[in-house]
Amino acid sequence: MIALADCNNFYASCERVFNPGLIGQPVVVLSNNDGCVISRSEEAKKLGIKMAVPAYQIEKLIIKNQVKVFSSNYALYGDLSNRVMNTLAGFTPSLEIYSIDESFLDFSFLPPPQAADYARQIRRTLLKNIGIPVSIGIGPTKTLAKVANKIAKKQGTDGVFVFETAAATAEYLQKLMVDEVWGIGRQHAAWLHANKIHTAYDFSQAPAHWVKKHLSVTGLRTKDELCGISCIDLEEFQSRKKTICTSRSFGQPQSQLEPLTEAVATFTMKCAEKLRHQHSAATELMVFILTNPFRSELPQYSPSRVIRLPVATNDSLELVKHATAALKAIYREGYLFKKAGVIVMGLIPENEVQLNLFSSSGTPQQRRLMETIDRLNRHYGSDTIQLAAQGTKRKWKLRQERLSPRYTTNWKEILVINVGNEKAPDGDNPQPPRPRTETPES
DNA sequence: TCTGGGGTCCTAGGACCC
DNA sequence: TCTGGGGTCCTAGGACCC
After folding, report:
1. Is A232 helix (H, G, I), strand (E, B) or coil?
2. Which pLDDT score, from 0 to 100, does residue A432 have?
3. A72: nearest nucleotide, CA–C1' criterion
4. Do A2-162 and A244-390 show the same overall fold?
Protein backbone atom coordinates (compact mmCIF):
# COMPACT_ATOMS: atom_id res chain seq x y z
CA MET A 1 0.00 0.00 0.00
CA ILE A 2 1.00 3.58 -0.71
CA ALA A 3 -0.09 6.64 1.25
CA LEU A 4 -0.29 10.18 -0.07
CA ALA A 5 0.05 12.85 2.59
CA ASP A 6 -1.08 16.24 1.28
CA CYS A 7 -1.08 19.40 3.38
CA ASN A 8 -4.45 21.14 3.43
CA ASN A 9 -4.41 24.59 1.79
CA PHE A 10 -0.71 24.58 2.50
CA TYR A 11 0.36 28.23 2.11
CA ALA A 12 -2.76 29.52 3.84
CA SER A 13 -2.17 27.01 6.63
CA CYS A 14 1.46 28.18 6.97
CA GLU A 15 0.26 31.75 7.47
CA ARG A 16 -1.93 30.54 10.32
CA VAL A 17 0.80 28.71 12.23
CA PHE A 18 2.29 31.86 13.76
CA ASN A 19 -0.85 33.95 13.48
CA PRO A 20 -3.67 32.04 15.14
CA GLY A 21 -5.93 35.06 14.77
CA LEU A 22 -6.37 33.86 11.21
CA ILE A 23 -8.03 30.61 12.28
CA GLY A 24 -11.65 30.64 11.19
CA GLN A 25 -10.99 33.60 8.87
CA PRO A 26 -10.94 33.59 5.09
CA VAL A 27 -7.26 33.64 4.08
CA VAL A 28 -5.73 33.78 0.61
CA VAL A 29 -2.11 33.73 -0.51
CA LEU A 30 -1.13 35.43 -3.77
CA SER A 31 1.39 34.35 -6.37
CA ASN A 32 4.62 36.26 -6.93
CA ASN A 33 4.09 39.91 -7.78
CA ASP A 34 0.79 39.68 -5.87
CA GLY A 35 -0.82 38.48 -9.08
CA CYS A 36 -3.17 35.52 -8.64
CA VAL A 37 -4.69 33.54 -5.80
CA ILE A 38 -2.68 30.36 -5.26
CA SER A 39 -3.86 29.17 -1.87
CA ARG A 40 -7.18 29.56 -0.06
CA SER A 41 -8.43 28.62 3.37
CA GLU A 42 -11.74 26.71 3.50
CA GLU A 43 -13.52 29.94 4.47
CA ALA A 44 -12.10 31.67 1.38
CA LYS A 45 -13.21 28.79 -0.84
CA LYS A 46 -16.72 29.07 0.58
CA LEU A 47 -16.80 32.72 -0.47
CA GLY A 48 -16.43 31.50 -4.04
CA ILE A 49 -12.82 32.61 -4.51
CA LYS A 50 -11.50 30.38 -7.27
CA MET A 51 -7.99 29.02 -7.65
CA ALA A 52 -5.66 31.13 -9.83
CA VAL A 53 -8.05 34.06 -10.14
CA PRO A 54 -6.26 37.42 -10.56
CA ALA A 55 -6.33 39.36 -7.30
CA TYR A 56 -7.70 42.56 -8.83
CA GLN A 57 -10.80 40.70 -10.00
CA ILE A 58 -11.87 39.85 -6.45
CA GLU A 59 -11.01 43.14 -4.76
CA LYS A 60 -14.61 43.88 -3.75
CA LEU A 61 -15.08 40.38 -2.36
CA ILE A 62 -11.92 40.79 -0.30
CA ILE A 63 -12.98 44.07 1.23
CA LYS A 64 -16.57 43.05 1.84
CA ASN A 65 -15.61 39.82 3.61
CA GLN A 66 -12.41 41.09 5.23
CA VAL A 67 -10.42 38.38 3.53
CA LYS A 68 -6.87 38.25 4.90
CA VAL A 69 -4.49 38.52 1.96
CA PHE A 70 -0.80 37.57 1.92
CA SER A 71 2.04 37.78 -0.57
CA SER A 72 3.91 34.50 -1.10
CA ASN A 73 6.45 33.94 1.67
CA TYR A 74 8.53 31.07 0.32
CA ALA A 75 11.13 31.33 3.08
CA LEU A 76 8.36 30.41 5.53
CA TYR A 77 6.61 27.79 3.37
CA GLY A 78 9.87 26.09 2.42
CA ASP A 79 10.98 25.83 6.02
CA LEU A 80 7.65 24.48 7.25
CA SER A 81 7.62 22.05 4.32
CA ASN A 82 11.02 20.71 5.42
CA ARG A 83 9.70 20.16 8.91
CA VAL A 84 6.65 18.32 7.60
CA MET A 85 8.76 16.10 5.34
CA ASN A 86 11.29 15.32 8.06
CA THR A 87 8.48 14.29 10.38
CA LEU A 88 6.86 12.12 7.70
CA ALA A 89 10.21 10.45 7.02
CA GLY A 90 10.15 9.12 10.58
CA PHE A 91 6.96 7.18 9.84
CA THR A 92 8.02 5.17 6.80
CA PRO A 93 11.05 3.31 5.48
CA SER A 94 10.64 5.05 2.13
CA LEU A 95 9.35 8.55 1.34
CA GLU A 96 8.99 10.37 -1.96
CA ILE A 97 8.75 14.13 -1.65
CA TYR A 98 6.48 14.90 -4.57
CA SER A 99 6.01 18.65 -4.14
CA ILE A 100 6.31 21.34 -1.50
CA ASP A 101 3.17 20.06 0.23
CA GLU A 102 2.83 16.40 -0.82
CA SER A 103 4.64 13.15 -0.15
CA PHE A 104 4.08 9.52 -1.01
CA LEU A 105 4.83 7.09 1.82
CA ASP A 106 5.55 3.41 1.46
CA PHE A 107 2.99 1.67 3.68
CA SER A 108 3.77 -1.86 2.53
CA PHE A 109 5.34 -2.71 5.88
CA LEU A 110 1.94 -2.26 7.59
CA PRO A 111 -0.81 -4.88 7.83
CA PRO A 112 -3.58 -3.16 5.79
CA PRO A 113 -6.13 -3.06 8.65
CA GLN A 114 -3.72 -0.89 10.61
CA ALA A 115 -3.12 1.64 7.86
CA ALA A 116 -5.93 4.01 8.81
CA ASP A 117 -4.97 4.17 12.49
CA TYR A 118 -1.33 4.71 11.61
CA ALA A 119 -2.28 7.54 9.23
CA ARG A 120 -4.36 9.18 11.94
CA GLN A 121 -1.36 9.04 14.22
CA ILE A 122 0.74 10.78 11.55
CA ARG A 123 -1.90 13.48 11.18
CA ARG A 124 -2.03 14.14 14.92
CA THR A 125 1.74 14.33 15.13
CA LEU A 126 2.02 16.86 12.31
CA LEU A 127 -0.78 18.99 13.69
CA LYS A 128 0.72 19.00 17.16
CA ASN A 129 4.41 19.40 16.30
CA ILE A 130 4.18 21.74 13.34
CA GLY A 131 0.62 23.03 13.24
CA ILE A 132 -0.09 22.00 9.67
CA PRO A 133 -3.25 19.99 8.90
CA VAL A 134 -2.71 17.11 6.51
CA SER A 135 -4.99 14.67 4.68
CA ILE A 136 -3.84 11.14 4.01
CA GLY A 137 -5.16 8.84 1.28
CA ILE A 138 -4.11 5.21 1.07
CA GLY A 139 -4.39 2.76 -1.81
CA PRO A 140 -2.56 0.05 -3.71
CA THR A 141 -1.16 2.48 -6.33
CA LYS A 142 -0.06 6.10 -6.39
CA THR A 143 -3.03 7.09 -8.53
CA LEU A 144 -5.49 5.42 -6.16
CA ALA A 145 -3.70 7.01 -3.18
CA LYS A 146 -4.35 10.33 -4.91
CA VAL A 147 -8.03 9.50 -5.30
CA ALA A 148 -8.21 8.36 -1.67
CA ASN A 149 -6.63 11.65 -0.64
CA LYS A 150 -9.39 13.59 -2.41
CA ILE A 151 -11.95 11.62 -0.44
CA ALA A 152 -9.97 12.18 2.77
CA LYS A 153 -10.11 15.93 2.18
CA LYS A 154 -13.90 15.91 2.23
CA GLN A 155 -15.68 16.48 5.49
CA GLY A 156 -16.63 13.58 7.70
CA THR A 157 -13.58 11.42 7.02
CA ASP A 158 -11.30 12.81 9.77
CA GLY A 159 -8.65 13.43 7.14
CA VAL A 160 -7.86 9.79 6.38
CA PHE A 161 -9.27 7.42 3.77
CA VAL A 162 -8.22 3.93 2.71
CA PHE A 163 -9.22 1.91 -0.36
CA GLU A 164 -9.63 -1.47 1.26
CA THR A 165 -11.26 -3.70 -1.35
CA ALA A 166 -11.47 -3.70 -5.12
CA ALA A 167 -15.26 -3.59 -4.90
CA ALA A 168 -15.25 -0.49 -2.69
CA THR A 169 -12.70 1.13 -4.99
CA ALA A 170 -14.86 0.52 -8.06
CA GLU A 171 -17.84 2.04 -6.28
CA TYR A 172 -15.94 5.24 -5.52
CA LEU A 173 -14.49 5.46 -9.01
CA GLN A 174 -18.02 5.40 -10.43
CA LYS A 175 -18.74 8.59 -8.49
CA LEU A 176 -15.53 10.36 -9.51
CA MET A 177 -15.35 12.38 -12.73
CA VAL A 178 -12.48 11.38 -14.98
CA ASP A 179 -11.33 15.04 -14.91
CA GLU A 180 -10.42 14.59 -11.25
CA VAL A 181 -7.96 11.76 -11.88
CA TRP A 182 -4.24 12.48 -11.43
CA GLY A 183 -2.71 12.52 -14.92
CA ILE A 184 -5.89 13.46 -16.80
CA GLY A 185 -5.78 17.12 -17.69
CA ARG A 186 -8.22 19.42 -19.43
CA GLN A 187 -7.53 18.32 -22.99
CA HIS A 188 -7.72 14.62 -22.34
CA ALA A 189 -10.79 15.02 -20.12
CA ALA A 190 -12.66 16.88 -22.84
CA TRP A 191 -11.70 14.26 -25.38
CA LEU A 192 -12.78 11.42 -23.08
CA HIS A 193 -16.15 13.06 -22.41
CA ALA A 194 -16.65 13.44 -26.14
CA ASN A 195 -16.08 9.69 -26.37
CA LYS A 196 -18.64 8.89 -23.65
CA ILE A 197 -16.10 8.25 -20.93
CA HIS A 198 -17.24 10.32 -18.00
CA THR A 199 -16.19 8.70 -14.74
CA ALA A 200 -12.89 7.37 -13.46
CA TYR A 201 -14.51 3.94 -13.53
CA ASP A 202 -15.44 4.31 -17.23
CA PHE A 203 -11.83 5.16 -17.95
CA SER A 204 -10.50 2.20 -15.95
CA GLN A 205 -12.65 -0.11 -18.09
CA ALA A 206 -11.70 1.36 -21.48
CA PRO A 207 -9.82 -0.94 -23.89
CA ALA A 208 -6.07 -0.74 -23.33
CA HIS A 209 -5.07 -0.37 -27.00
CA TRP A 210 -7.58 2.44 -27.46
CA VAL A 211 -6.27 4.30 -24.41
CA LYS A 212 -2.68 3.89 -25.53
CA LYS A 213 -3.47 5.07 -29.05
CA HIS A 214 -5.11 8.29 -27.93
CA LEU A 215 -3.52 9.08 -24.55
CA SER A 216 -0.11 7.45 -25.06
CA VAL A 217 1.61 5.18 -22.57
CA THR A 218 1.16 7.68 -19.75
CA GLY A 219 -2.60 7.45 -20.17
CA LEU A 220 -2.38 3.68 -20.19
CA ARG A 221 -0.41 3.72 -16.96
CA THR A 222 -3.08 5.85 -15.35
CA LYS A 223 -5.80 3.42 -16.46
CA ASP A 224 -3.89 0.43 -15.06
CA GLU A 225 -3.19 2.24 -11.81
CA LEU A 226 -6.91 2.87 -11.38
CA CYS A 227 -7.39 -0.89 -11.73
CA GLY A 228 -4.94 -1.45 -8.88
CA ILE A 229 -1.95 -2.39 -11.05
CA SER A 230 1.00 -0.35 -9.84
CA CYS A 231 2.90 1.26 -12.77
CA ILE A 232 4.41 4.36 -11.19
CA ASP A 233 7.15 3.56 -8.70
CA LEU A 234 7.94 5.39 -5.52
CA GLU A 235 11.00 7.53 -6.19
CA GLU A 236 12.81 7.89 -2.94
CA PHE A 237 15.85 9.71 -4.26
CA GLN A 238 15.51 13.06 -5.90
CA SER A 239 17.17 12.94 -9.28
CA ARG A 240 19.01 15.93 -10.64
CA LYS A 241 16.90 18.37 -12.57
CA LYS A 242 17.34 18.37 -16.32
CA THR A 243 16.59 22.05 -16.74
CA ILE A 244 16.56 24.86 -14.20
CA CYS A 245 14.64 28.09 -14.68
CA THR A 246 14.55 31.36 -12.76
CA SER A 247 12.05 33.92 -14.00
CA ARG A 248 10.01 36.73 -12.50
CA SER A 249 7.45 39.29 -13.47
CA PHE A 250 8.42 42.85 -12.65
CA GLY A 251 6.61 45.08 -10.20
CA GLN A 252 6.76 47.77 -12.92
CA PRO A 253 7.19 47.11 -16.63
CA GLN A 254 10.69 47.95 -17.87
CA SER A 255 11.68 49.43 -21.20
CA GLN A 256 15.39 50.19 -20.65
CA LEU A 257 18.24 47.76 -21.15
CA GLU A 258 19.93 48.55 -17.84
CA PRO A 259 17.28 47.32 -15.40
CA LEU A 260 16.65 44.32 -17.64
CA THR A 261 20.35 43.50 -17.48
CA GLU A 262 20.26 43.71 -13.70
CA ALA A 263 17.29 41.39 -13.57
CA VAL A 264 18.81 38.87 -15.98
CA ALA A 265 22.10 38.93 -14.04
CA THR A 266 20.19 38.29 -10.82
CA PHE A 267 18.19 35.40 -12.30
CA THR A 268 21.37 33.91 -13.76
CA MET A 269 23.07 34.07 -10.36
CA LYS A 270 20.11 32.17 -8.93
CA CYS A 271 20.31 29.52 -11.66
CA ALA A 272 24.06 29.12 -11.09
CA GLU A 273 23.49 28.65 -7.38
CA LYS A 274 20.84 25.99 -8.06
CA LEU A 275 23.21 24.29 -10.51
CA ARG A 276 26.00 24.09 -7.94
CA HIS A 277 23.55 22.88 -5.33
CA GLN A 278 22.78 19.79 -7.40
CA HIS A 279 26.38 19.46 -8.66
CA SER A 280 25.45 20.04 -12.29
CA ALA A 281 26.95 22.14 -15.04
CA ALA A 282 25.01 23.68 -17.93
CA THR A 283 25.91 23.22 -21.57
CA GLU A 284 23.26 25.69 -22.77
CA LEU A 285 21.61 28.79 -21.46
CA MET A 286 18.46 30.57 -22.60
CA VAL A 287 17.45 34.14 -21.88
CA PHE A 288 13.93 35.39 -22.53
CA ILE A 289 12.08 38.66 -22.04
CA LEU A 290 8.33 39.10 -22.39
CA THR A 291 6.01 42.01 -22.94
CA ASN A 292 2.64 41.80 -21.22
CA PRO A 293 0.40 39.52 -23.33
CA PHE A 294 -2.69 40.82 -21.50
CA ARG A 295 -2.06 44.31 -22.86
CA SER A 296 -2.78 43.45 -26.46
CA GLU A 297 -3.14 47.14 -27.37
CA LEU A 298 0.58 47.60 -26.66
CA PRO A 299 3.28 46.46 -29.08
CA GLN A 300 4.27 42.87 -28.33
CA TYR A 301 7.79 41.48 -28.53
CA SER A 302 8.82 38.39 -26.59
CA PRO A 303 12.14 37.13 -27.91
CA SER A 304 14.44 34.49 -26.51
CA ARG A 305 17.93 33.29 -27.30
CA VAL A 306 19.77 30.06 -26.61
CA ILE A 307 23.54 30.13 -26.13
CA ARG A 308 25.61 27.00 -26.45
CA LEU A 309 28.34 27.43 -23.87
CA PRO A 310 31.90 26.76 -25.04
CA VAL A 311 32.49 24.71 -21.88
CA ALA A 312 29.79 23.35 -19.58
CA THR A 313 29.85 25.41 -16.42
CA ASN A 314 28.14 26.36 -13.17
CA ASP A 315 30.34 29.41 -12.65
CA SER A 316 28.21 32.46 -11.93
CA LEU A 317 30.56 34.93 -13.59
CA GLU A 318 30.82 32.89 -16.76
CA LEU A 319 27.06 32.36 -17.00
CA VAL A 320 26.24 36.00 -16.29
CA LYS A 321 28.64 37.07 -19.02
CA HIS A 322 26.85 34.94 -21.61
CA ALA A 323 23.36 35.75 -20.33
CA THR A 324 23.81 39.52 -20.45
CA ALA A 325 25.33 39.27 -23.93
CA ALA A 326 22.31 37.24 -25.08
CA LEU A 327 19.97 39.82 -23.58
CA LYS A 328 21.76 42.62 -25.35
CA ALA A 329 21.36 40.78 -28.64
CA ILE A 330 17.58 40.37 -28.33
CA TYR A 331 16.72 43.66 -26.62
CA ARG A 332 14.85 46.29 -28.65
CA GLU A 333 13.82 49.76 -27.64
CA GLY A 334 10.21 50.81 -27.55
CA TYR A 335 8.65 47.92 -25.67
CA LEU A 336 7.39 47.58 -22.12
CA PHE A 337 8.79 44.31 -20.79
CA LYS A 338 6.85 42.66 -17.99
CA LYS A 339 8.92 39.61 -17.28
CA ALA A 340 12.34 38.08 -17.87
CA GLY A 341 13.87 34.71 -17.22
CA VAL A 342 16.90 32.50 -17.55
CA ILE A 343 16.89 28.75 -18.20
CA VAL A 344 19.97 26.58 -17.95
CA MET A 345 19.73 23.40 -20.02
CA GLY A 346 21.65 20.37 -21.18
CA LEU A 347 22.73 19.77 -17.59
CA ILE A 348 25.50 17.28 -16.92
CA PRO A 349 27.25 16.21 -13.70
CA GLU A 350 29.85 18.83 -12.81
CA ASN A 351 32.58 16.18 -12.56
CA GLU A 352 32.00 15.08 -16.16
CA VAL A 353 32.67 18.42 -17.83
CA GLN A 354 34.68 18.14 -21.02
CA LEU A 355 37.33 20.84 -20.84
CA ASN A 356 38.19 23.06 -23.76
CA LEU A 357 41.76 23.42 -24.94
CA PHE A 358 41.28 27.13 -25.55
CA SER A 359 39.38 28.08 -22.41
CA SER A 360 40.50 28.67 -18.85
CA SER A 361 37.03 28.19 -17.44
CA GLY A 362 36.58 26.04 -14.35
CA THR A 363 39.92 26.59 -12.66
CA PRO A 364 40.29 25.55 -8.99
CA GLN A 365 40.40 29.24 -8.02
CA GLN A 366 37.07 29.94 -9.67
CA ARG A 367 35.52 26.91 -8.02
CA ARG A 368 36.72 28.04 -4.61
CA LEU A 369 35.33 31.50 -5.28
CA MET A 370 31.90 30.02 -6.03
CA GLU A 371 32.03 27.79 -2.94
CA THR A 372 32.83 30.82 -0.84
CA ILE A 373 30.02 32.91 -2.31
CA ASP A 374 27.57 30.07 -1.68
CA ARG A 375 28.75 29.63 1.88
CA LEU A 376 28.47 33.32 2.69
CA ASN A 377 25.04 33.60 1.11
CA ARG A 378 23.85 30.52 2.96
CA HIS A 379 25.10 31.82 6.26
CA TYR A 380 24.37 35.52 6.07
CA GLY A 381 21.38 35.46 3.76
CA SER A 382 21.05 35.25 0.00
CA ASP A 383 22.24 38.37 -1.79
CA THR A 384 24.96 39.01 0.81
CA ILE A 385 27.46 38.62 -2.02
CA GLN A 386 26.25 39.95 -5.35
CA LEU A 387 27.71 40.99 -8.65
CA ALA A 388 27.83 44.68 -9.46
CA ALA A 389 25.96 43.72 -12.62
CA GLN A 390 22.94 42.88 -10.49
CA GLY A 391 22.60 46.56 -9.62
CA THR A 392 21.33 48.16 -6.48
CA LYS A 393 18.26 50.08 -7.55
CA ARG A 394 16.08 47.10 -8.38
CA LYS A 395 13.46 49.11 -10.22
CA TRP A 396 12.15 45.80 -11.51
CA LYS A 397 11.67 44.05 -8.21
CA LEU A 398 8.57 42.06 -7.30
CA ARG A 399 5.50 43.59 -5.84
CA GLN A 400 5.09 42.04 -2.37
CA GLU A 401 2.80 44.27 -0.42
CA ARG A 402 1.33 41.79 2.03
CA LEU A 403 4.34 39.80 3.15
CA SER A 404 4.24 38.08 6.53
CA PRO A 405 7.43 37.76 8.63
CA ARG A 406 9.93 34.97 7.98
CA TYR A 407 9.14 33.65 11.46
CA THR A 408 11.42 30.62 11.33
CA THR A 409 14.40 31.65 9.23
CA ASN A 410 15.28 35.20 10.26
CA TRP A 411 16.15 36.29 13.80
CA LYS A 412 14.79 39.77 13.25
CA GLU A 413 11.40 38.47 12.21
CA ILE A 414 10.92 35.94 14.97
CA LEU A 415 7.51 36.00 16.65
CA VAL A 416 7.15 38.50 19.49
CA ILE A 417 4.45 37.89 22.05
CA ASN A 418 3.19 40.94 23.91
CA VAL A 419 2.46 40.10 27.52
CA GLY A 420 0.17 42.52 29.32
CA ASN A 421 -2.17 45.05 27.84
CA GLU A 422 -0.16 46.34 24.92
CA LYS A 423 -2.25 46.17 21.85
CA ALA A 424 -0.69 44.60 18.82
CA PRO A 425 0.10 47.29 16.24
CA ASP A 426 -2.29 45.74 13.75
CA GLY A 427 -5.60 44.15 14.57
CA ASP A 428 -5.13 41.33 12.09
CA ASN A 429 -1.50 40.37 12.35
CA PRO A 430 0.55 39.98 15.53
CA GLN A 431 3.31 41.62 13.53
CA PRO A 432 2.40 43.67 10.50
CA PRO A 433 4.26 43.09 7.28
CA ARG A 434 7.32 45.28 7.24
CA PRO A 435 9.94 46.19 4.73
CA ARG A 436 12.65 43.61 4.32
CA THR A 437 16.16 44.54 5.36
CA GLU A 438 19.24 42.75 4.17
CA THR A 439 19.84 40.73 7.31
CA PRO A 440 21.08 37.25 8.13
CA GLU A 441 18.64 34.53 7.08
CA SER A 442 19.43 32.12 9.84
C1' DT B 1 -3.53 49.94 -13.28
C1' DC B 2 -3.68 45.08 -11.87
C1' DT B 3 -3.14 38.32 -14.72
C1' DG B 4 2.86 33.26 -11.17
C1' DG B 5 6.71 30.11 -11.41
C1' DG B 6 8.94 25.72 -12.14
C1' DG B 7 9.11 21.36 -13.81
C1' DT B 8 8.51 16.27 -16.52
C1' DC B 9 7.38 13.11 -20.18
C1' DC B 10 5.84 11.54 -24.80
C1' DT B 11 5.28 11.61 -29.82
C1' DA B 12 5.81 12.67 -34.62
C1' DG B 13 8.61 13.90 -38.06
C1' DG B 14 12.93 15.05 -40.13
C1' DA B 15 17.73 14.17 -40.79
C1' DC B 16 21.01 11.11 -40.69
C1' DC B 17 23.50 6.27 -40.67
C1' DC B 18 24.43 1.36 -42.73
C1' DT C 1 7.92 0.50 -65.87
C1' DC C 2 10.24 -0.95 -61.70
C1' DT C 3 12.92 2.20 -56.22
C1' DG C 4 14.32 -1.86 -49.24
C1' DG C 5 14.86 -2.49 -44.55
C1' DG C 6 16.39 -1.29 -40.15
C1' DG C 7 18.07 1.81 -37.12
C1' DT C 8 19.50 6.40 -34.00
C1' DC C 9 19.32 11.08 -32.67
C1' DC C 10 17.32 15.53 -32.32
C1' DT C 11 13.65 18.93 -32.00
C1' DA C 12 9.21 21.17 -31.56
C1' DG C 13 5.02 20.91 -29.77
C1' DG C 14 1.70 19.25 -26.75
C1' DA C 15 0.20 17.11 -22.77
C1' DC C 16 0.54 16.77 -17.86
C1' DC C 17 1.87 17.96 -12.68
C1' DC C 18 2.42 21.08 -8.35
Report:
1. coil
2. 46
3. B4
4. no
- φ, ψ of residue A330 to 5 degrees: the values are -100, -15
Residues with CB under 7 A from strand B: A 31-33, 35-36, 38, 52, 54, 56, 212, 216-218, 241-249, 253, 274, 292, 294-295, 338-339, 341, 343, 398
Average pLDDT over residues A128-147: 97
Count other C-beta atoms under 10 Å from residue A25's C-beta: 17
Domain at A166-226: CATH code: 1.10.150.20
- Overall average pLDDT of the A240-253 stretch: 94
Shortest-distance nucleotide from A100 CA to C1': C18
- CA nearest to nucleotide C14 C1': residue: A187
The per-residue b/e assignment along A173-185, b for 16 or more CB within 10 angstroms, e otherwise, is beebebbebbbbe
Average the pLDDT over A53-63 and give the result: 95
End-to-end CA distance of chain A: 39
pLDDT band at A421 (very low <50, low <70, confident <90, very high): low
Measured distance CA(A278)–CA(A327) in Å, rounded: 26
A216/B14 CA-to-C1' distance in Å: 21
Residue-range domain boundaries for chain A: 2-162, 166-226, 244-390
The CATH number given to A2-162 is: 3.30.70.270
The predicted pLDDT at position A151 comes to: 96
Where residue A206 falls among pLDDT bands split at 50, 70, 90?
very high
User: H or E stretch including A382?
Assistant: none
- The CATH architecture one would assign to domain A244-390 is 2-Layer Sandwich (3.30)
